[in-house]
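User: Here's a chain of 549 residues. Predict its fold as tokens.
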Amino acid sequence: MERNPTAIVAVDTTALADRGFMEAIPVRQVQDQDDLVCHCAGVTRARIKSAIATAPASTLESLGAQLGCGVQCGCCRPLVQELLGQSPWYEVANAMRTTLTDDGHPERRIVQLDLQLVGFPPYPQAQPAQHVVLQAWLDESWITRTYTVVRQSEDGNTVSIAMRRIEGGEFGQRLIDVDDATFAAIPLRIAVPAGEIAPADSRPMVCFVAGVGVTLALSLLHGRRPGQHLHVDYSASRRGDMVYADRIEGSASSGREVSCHLRTDDVDGFIDDEDILETVKQFPGARYYVCGPPAYTRRLVDGLHKAEVADADVRVEAFFLKTNARPRPGIRRLAYAAGIALAFLPLLLLAPALAKFVPNDAHNPGHVDLECSECHREAPGTMRQQLQAKAKHLLGLRASDIAFGNRPVNNAACVGCHDDRDDRHPAYRFLEPRFAAARETLAPQLCVSCHREHTGTRVSQTDTGFCAACHSDTKVKDDPASPTHAVLFRDKRWETCLTCHDFHGNHPHDPPHDLKDAIAPQTIAAYLRAAKSPYGEPVVKAKQPEASP
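Assistant: Prediction complete.
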């Protein structure tokens, strides 16, 4: 599903300082440029800073369109806003911990944190299914995690979340294990609620949750609209590990609008496809929410797919954690390091004088007049610095790799010239969980998967069957087409898709209702190679590289 994070409100830090509210909030002086800021799109801090330096007027929206950050789950939006020189944070004045699980497995206990804010500026109310980004000042740096809002006070100034203790964890274990005095001294701050809001309709909601993922069910329970049915299917390893179970069962027993099924692994076993199908049949027309450990989430999504639940009706909540694990050095890495001095030789072929000697030098339509350097731009740092960083990475002394010589020609390079805010199929949209299968087979999240450069053609992916990867189960209500889409899908006539539909929607073309009036397939084939567009003139024309961020 397409995510629409709530707009982040900038906090006037000067005003807070004047009131004495900022004294407890340290300012992070050193930032690791290789930190992943956006896990959904794999965008690092250095990449965002480079985009901002190139285009100082950048906004959250423009960076999202260019890099793909902040447009999926929304967890990285406050971090991106920080890089834009704004402050999206609200200081936590007081925090209380309450252990929710029993003493059966104290090393995996779940704790509720009640975060009382300073009250200025006023904190907005979280909507059902929204989350907050929480930061804690640990080891002289801000550590960031994301949690679903379990409950919020009427005035908005007390926000409750729940976290599980994970052995070796950088965040939860630190906040849970320390004594009360140490915990009280840890500076905490949160950003405004973000994430896709549960739609305001009367459709039943079915929430499959496991472990601490039950917080999503609590958020939906507290924000449920009168008359709307909510069913919670809650899995845990044992009854003592279940949190908020009494609250869920109490709501289910007090009326007919809430129901639940609590299952434990030690008694009921793991939830399986039969259990999922039975629940789907029990709640026709429902919208489904899934939140839990990765293995549980994969099992549920696969089971819902087998039960023929449309992808658009399934929302998966998955938050990402930073890992500090580094690969162990080995003899193979040492061998790679020995050859790194030869790696810069291919860069000579990017020189304008040698461009004609590059294999497959044929440019795609519209790129004939471009110089190599306009797409293959220099990577940051001197060659010596790049070689040092490469060697450290190969020896296991550096967590992440870097670009050597030239930056990779990725989506950002393409969107810099071909940015269209009304694009019907933007590459970043395919990063959504429902397109996982398509990513494995076609990689549609990468511009070059369809528009590979140096092939001399407009579109290198000429198998129009790629439409089937996402639209095989599409249903069109009151379909005016002749033949209908259902018939075309049934007969697997995927070659007709582009004869009616402009893939990116960048032309003033209205799809015909009758296939007889569609564009001839041979005309489409010629256009995909290099011919003029049969859809009309482009609405948004490509920018010149020198004017692109």
